[in-house]
Specification:
Elements: H1 3-18, E1 27-31, H2 34-40, E2 48-51, E3 63-67, H3 80-83, E4 84-89, E5 95-101, H4 111-124, E6 131-135, H5 138-143, H6 151-161, H7 165-168, E7 174-176, H8 184-194, E8 199-202, E9 206-211, H9 214-237, H10 245-255
Parallel strand pairs: 7-8
Antiparallel strand pairs: 1-3, 1-6, 2-5, 3-4, 4-5, 6-9, 8-9
Helix pairs in contact: 4-8, 6-9
The structure holds 1,3-dihydroxyacetonephosphate (13P) and zinc ion.
Length: about 260
Amino acid sequence: MKDILERFRRLCVDGYVQGWHERNGGNLSYRMPAEDVSDCNDIMTDCRSFSFSEPIRGIEGEYFIVTGTGRYMRNAEIDPEGTFGIIRVNDAGDGYTVLWGLRDSRPTSELPTHLMNHAVRFQATGGRCRVIYHAHPANITALTYTIRPDAKTLSRILWQSETECAVVFPEGIGIVPWMVPGGMEIAKATCALIDRFPAVVWAFHGVFASGSSFDEAFGLMHTIEKAAEIYLKASAVGIINTITDDNLSELGKAFGVTLNPDFLE
Ligand code: 13P
Ligand code: ZN
């Protein structure tokens, strides 16, 4: 299999092994640079074309690898062509063509969120962002039942639950209150946050994480989920100590990152 498809598959399997992908839960997309497109040229043929319910700006003519709707991440290992595929968004940005894979399937129901996030995040990172990853990790999802859906509250809890968090996501993490998944509305609500935050939590549902590479997106998801796990464990016993705002500022200085000043007290 092509190297880029192997690397895409690896993240699917890694996420499944973490327990983040029950049934068909979660989805993944990768914006292919020109070298990946030319490497995959010999396997791509126009299979089927579909329309979006409304045009999506900023990704016209781009190629993506995406997981299929209803597909199980755990099957990426044994059935890559049935689990994910390559699509090209048309030049008008109002539809796409499947060029490889996605056998008996279509792209994820969260395709609008993935593609709109790619458009926004690509701009926000000066063209570095290539990966958008949605997963259903249990601890960060459980945490959303215990707080108001507020980015400052969530970000401070995570920063204070594991020392490295403030270095990994100094901008903080966004949160969208509960919404019906799978359409343009939740895509727009996520997009409105992902220009400022590298990841956005969906209350009572899961997380969208972004990254310039599979490692970065997976690592961000892993860091968020682990911090949430630590917080829930510490809360269950009773928190009597935490990382202070002075500690957070010291971290910022030591690692040369600027923590979101709106989230410090
Ligand atoms: P899909 O099977 O359409 O990718 O949906 C899974 C999911 O997690 C929806 O939020
Ligand atoms: Zn989901």
